[in-house]
Amino acid sequence: MTRVTKVDTLDNRVRAQLPRVFSLITEHIETGASEIPEAGVQYSSLWHVLGAQFGGGKSIRPSLTLAAYHGLGGKDDDAPIPVAAAMEMLHIAMLVHDDIIDRDEVRRGRPNIAGTRRAELASSDNTPDQIENSVLATALLGGDVAIASAYDLIASAPLPAHHRIACLGLVTRAIRTTIAGELLDAHSELVDISDSDPLLIAQLKTATYTCVVPLLAGAELAGGDPTLIAHLEEAGLSMGLSFQLIDDDLGIFGDPEVTGKSVISDLRAGKRTEMVQRACTHGTPAQVEALRRLVGDPHLDDEGAAQAREILESSGARQMTLDIARDHARKARTLCSERIPAPLSGYLTTMIGALEERVS
Fold it and tell me: Disulfide engineering: 236 pairs with which of 98, 212, 222, 330, CB 3.0-4.6 Å?
């Protein structure tokens, strides 16, 4: 294929290749489901339920890998497909495990692995403890299957060894960084809100595996030089932080019919987001006292959630957080326009704007 030189051509190339990415994932899942027949129906079923988790998302991670590769001069249409597929598989693994931590059984408006397993056992004669154990085990193992698949897709890809090794290293980096962020997030729920660091958590838990690693994987395949890699990392970090802060806002103020996610679950879980922390810093004593009572209440109802939202708005915390998200989006756009070559710079600038203004 000829080298891509225009933004619209790059966008078309990415859109044209995404179906190939998901086709490869489907093929990989079907192969996995039939791989160990002696393991019985539960094993093959786990693969198929994992496969049902795909679709309905924004395909940010594989899109970034494809865009970085083609936008930086990559010409082989086959080369980035398995790596982009691995980025999406890694994302599913993170979602599955994050849902376990958050005790969520719905994702994108439909049952996730845990929710599917619970529905399967709803009419069984098993005890509640047996059902809980099976639900947890199935979800945990499903996430493990997805992680292993991310490695497998790259390790078995027809790529030069040095590219495979570099991309496998990026997957390892993404996993370790996300684990660090998840641990900080879990620990933050045990300490006072003022002692948490939501921006660091967002950087580690989301920004690295969502934007930085997919961009670097595509750049690695395209032969990007160290200086360009450093610029992509910096831009990807700000892009990912903006993405997460907007995501936090949608988790509280979004439309569940559009987002497919509850606007109470994050409040019930006591998520120490930047917005909540700023409300506790800038709110009145009465607002702070009420917010500390409401956030983390496992029995929080619609009325209590509405009260929490009002405090987040009236204290100025929501607007402050959205301003931070916009600052990071602006920084990412500036980095792209000044330090990243066309057409990738234009593609990323457009994506940053779309993510900043999204409603789901």
Answer: 212
